[in-house]
Design a protein that fits this description.
This protein is mainly alpha-helical. It has helices at about 5-15, 20-25, 45-55, 60-79; strands at about 5, 35, 40-45. It has one domain (about 5-79). Helix 3 (about 45-55) packs antiparallel against helix 4. The chain is globular.
């Protein structure tokens, strides 16, 4: 089980700022947040790490989108 990072931790881990982070979500190269409370969201740490590793290894945007889709599918399988 992965921990869930709030936005400030996820941003620090990725080196991004808020606006590019949400732009990446809209482009499909970052996973959507999960609700952790009535007004709180976060990102599973293992998902952020997997996407960062893909970027570091030089994966293409299309490969990262496929990874994001796989990560979203894995969330559904856990339910």
């Amino acid at each position: 089980m992965s921990s869930i990072w709030r936005l400030n931790v996820a941003l620090a881990e990725s080196g991004k700022t808020r606006s590019p982070w949400y732009k990446d979500i809209s482009l499909g190269v970052m996973t959507r947040p999960v609700k952790i409370g009535i007004r709180a969201v976060g990102w599973p740490a293992d998902e952020v790490r997997a996407i960062n590793a893909a970027r570091i290894s030089g994966k293409s945007i299309e490969q990262i989108r496929k990874l994001v889709d796989q990560l979203h599918d894995a969330r559904k399988a856990v339910r």
